[in-house]
Amino acid sequence: MTKKDGNPVPPPPLQGEGGDDVTTDLVRLMQRDLVFVIRFMGESQYRLQSHFQDFILKQLAGTGVTQETHPMIHAFVERHAIMLRDFVFSGVSLSRQLHLEEVEKLTGDTMIRVDIWDELRTHIEMAERQFRAQLPELPPILEAWKTPERPKSGDGR
User: Fold this and answer.
1) Which of 23, 34, 77, 87 is the right S-S partner for 30, CB 3.0 to 4.6 Å?
2) Which residues pair with 36 in a beta bridge?
């Protein structure tokens, strides 16, 4: 949203700690903060990864590194092919973002916000339950972040 002078209108402040519902805050910010991106899945991921594996193997062979000279090279090649694949798909996804309003116009679906609110609320509650379930195990793990004890005076330190 913009003012008449073309400058963006800042969103109202979030409710913060103790607020009624962070989900409502997030939905309120969707107009500005929510974008839809494309995502390549399935065979497309496999196809691009295979391309990069072949590419890397050919490039390495030009330097004298082959499967015969380096029998364990496949782990290196696979890892780097995945990194290159993800780099390509992330770049394409970031360059093709649609904002909520555009998606609503394209689909004619005015209930997207309600559906997203429902999903946000469900996942927030699930994350909170999961954290609460792990809470009894955390104090011993968090000992490493405890304030170090100061040496007692008279220790000579």
Assistant:
1) 34
2) 98
